[in-house]
Amino acid sequence: MNTQKKNILENHCYTELVYQRINKKLNTNLSNLKIEVFLKKVLFETEASQFEKIGKNFYVSNTKHNIKVTVNSNTYRIITVDKLEK
Predict the structure, then answer these.
(1) pTM, two decimal places
(2) Percentage of residues in the chain with pLDDT exceeding 70?
(3) N or C: which end of the chain has fewer CB within 10 A?
(4) Which fold has domain 3-83?
């Protein structure tokens, strides 16, 4: 496991607004805990090669779940989750 992936898995966190943003972007109505469990699973399952740092963010693309997770590289705070374009 590369250092970027390990750091994100160990240190990622959330703001109250991001839960609402994730539900809106993924068109779901998951509880905060379910979002956290889902994203932890996605981050763990994603190959290290799919963790890309661009500017101040990491972008984690997971084709199995068809989503891209954006993580701040300084605070490891989850910013948003977007559906991947097909």
Answers:
(1) 0.92
(2) 98
(3) C
(4) YaeB-like fold (3.30.2310)
